[in-house]
Amino acid sequence: MKIAFDIDDTLLIPSIASGFGNDTPNYETISLLKWFQNQGHEIILWSGSGIDWAKTWGEKFGLQPFEVLQKQKSEDVDIAFDDCDVDLAKVNVKVKRLNNRISREEWNKKI
């Protein structure tokens, strides 16, 4: 199966949400990714912030090997994990954001 993971608020907890001075890994979601990978599934990383952003964080988190794609609906992707309500794969799983009181608009103003 092809399993896709979003970066922001899914694999990466932005500093604005964590309250720390820097972005931190979401270890629970990364563990889930590694479980799928250990089962032999193909891992895809993508981000609304772009391909370079997804590749950079995938490498920083040591998630090799992985494929990086443009974040868009794909019938080839079996499961997509994201912090937003999306329709990107055959099955879409919403990951709980760490700090739900911070809106996307507010977060974007602070970065």
Write the SSE topology.
Elements: E1 2-6, E2 12-13, H1 15-18, E3 24-25, H2 27-38, E4 42-46, H3 51-60, E5 67-68, E6 79-82, E7 91-94, H4 104-110
Parallel strand pairs: 1-4, 1-6, 4-5, 6-7
Antiparallel strand pairs: 2-3
Summarize the structure.
The chain has 111 residues and is an alpha/beta fold. The protein has helices spanning 15-18, 27-38, 51-60, 104-110; strands spanning 2-6, 12-13, 24-25, 42-46, 67-68, 79-82, 91-94.
Describe this structure in words.
- Helices cover 30% and strands 22% of the residues.
- The protein has a 5-stranded parallel sheet. Strands 2-3 form a two-stranded antiparallel ribbon.
- The protein has 111 residues and is an alpha/beta fold.
- The longest helix is centred in the first third of the chain and has 12 residues, at 27-38.
- It has a single domain, classed as HAD superfamily/HAD-like (Rossmann fold, 3-Layer(aba) Sandwich), CATH 3.40.50.
List keywords for this structure.
single chain; 111 residues; alpha/beta; Rossmann fold; five-stranded parallel β-sheet; two-stranded antiparallel sheet; 4 helices; globular
The total strand number stands at 7
Number of domains: 1
SS content category: alpha/beta
**Secondary-structure arrangement, i.e. CATH architecture:** 3-Layer(aba) Sandwich
Order of helices and strands: EEHEHEHEEEH
| Unreliable spans | none
Discrete helix count: 4
